[in-house]
Amino acid sequence: xxxxxxxxxxxxxxxxxxxxxxxxxxxxxxxxxxxxxxxxxxxxxxxxxxxxxxxxxxxxxxxxxxxxxxxxxxxxxxxxxxxxx
Amino acid sequence: xxxxxxxxxxxxxxxxxxxxxxxxxxxxxxxxxxxxxxxxxxxxxxxxxxxxxxxxxxxxxxxxxxxxxxxxxxxxxxxxxxxxxxxxxxxxxxxxxxxxxxxxxxxxxxxxxxxxxxxxxxxxxxxxxxxxxxxxxxxxxxxxxxxxxxxxxxxxxxxxxxxxxxxxxxxxxxxxxxxxxxxxxxxxxxxxxxxxxxxxxxxxxxxxxxxxxxxxxxxxxxxxxxxxxxxxxxxxxxxxxxxxxxxxxxxxxxxxxxxxxxxxxxxxxxxxxxxxxxxxxxxxxxxxxxxxxxxxxxxxxxxxxxxxxxxxxxxxxxxxxxxxxxxxxxxxxxxxxxxxxxxxxxxxxxxxxxxxxxxxxxxxxxxxxxxxxxxxxxxxxxxxxxxxxxxxxxxxxxxxxxxxxx
Lengths: 85, 406
Known about the structure:
The structure holds 2 protein chains of 2 kinds.
Chain A: H1 3-17, H2 32-35, H3 40-54, H4 69-84
Helix pairs in contact in A: 1-3, 1-4
Chain B: E1 3-7, H1 14-23, E2 29-33, E3 37-42, H2 54-59, H3 62-77, E4 90-96, H4 101-112, H5 125-129, H6 133-142, E5 148-152, H7 157-170, E6 176-183, H8 189-197, E7 223-224, E8 226-232, H9 235-240, E9 248-256, H10 266-279, E10 289-291, H11 298-311, E11 321-323, H12 326-329, H13 336-344, H14 347-350, E12 352-353, E13 377-378, E14 384-391, E15 395-402
Parallel strand pairs in B: 3-7, 4-5, 4-6, 10-11, 10-14
Antiparallel strand pairs in B: 1-8, 2-3, 6-8, 9-15, 12-13, 14-15
Helix pairs in contact in B: 3-6, 7-13, 10-11
């Protein structure tokens, strides 16, 4: 999986969690919470969907790694590749 | 009472609901229930997106959506300028039969898909299942900062929510109350399975004939969802703002059977009605309509009719007419009392008393002598309504409202 594909997975999950939000023009290097109406429960939803849909665990101490799309891709891409290996 | 918002299997506003009652039209559907197959149910089809964003709906409980819809509609019906209302002086008091079964069952099913690994249990579980959830969701949606809570009162809950609001208004704790009863019970298999095991779940080849209080062939309850929430104000405040007054609360009572967890008790029910009538400063002969609880169970209907005969003998109460609403919509559980009162309130203006329907063969044990059967009746003037709501663990409630007259 490439980092761009990883970002798309995260965007798909966010579009389910925050269906009223427009994801067009999202800046990849800016915190998601600064661009979207997401609260802490929404971030837990992202963690849950990564677990349910993709078998990926994000330990609590790593939650800050999900701050922006770029940091998500940086952190999650190796995990996706490890799961599919 | 200056406004009501409702959702029912017969429609999502009072005029639509009322029209079906006067025309004698039931609306019960067959739905597929997890683990059980096809069951009869009263289903609401209100537009939840009218007052909630898609994101709110995703996190909300069903009963939260029912409550928000009814509360918003009630405020609209009352002609209140919501922006100008002081939100810290608004209280939300909602009666519930039960809460949390739907959400818990869904999560148990969810983790069953993951070999019962509790890491897959949702973090939304606790906010969705706390007992104040329906009332709390209303405050979040409407920006209300006054008190909110639910009143757990089995199937007497609709009346109990209204009575609680009456107390809080009289105590001066709030200036406006949003109060009534709500239910999401058709989303939990446990309620259906429980009634079935108890031999109290209705079955009929025509779902619209399944709920048939007072008929010889009645065989149990049809479970329904729904809600009815009233805007309630002190009479002086309502008059000062020139509000249209739907009804004035003049009497109430609640008591307990203290006998059996599920079987009702005619003696205590009669005591409850008499106490409410006494508080209203009336005699039984002054009551024009009695809306019975009448769940369509073989034993429950007989007990209530025995109580009605004791309190409202036809010889001394010639004006009193007795009906029920569950023949149309089934048993809306926590919403039942509030919803059934709403269905009768327009009688103050149109003079119609809606009938008990589906009574093809009246059970002599239910014949109180003053039942309105199968055809609506027109009366010159309806001035008072007594609304009964009873529930498990032997909880009884009677509420009396009168037509407002200057």
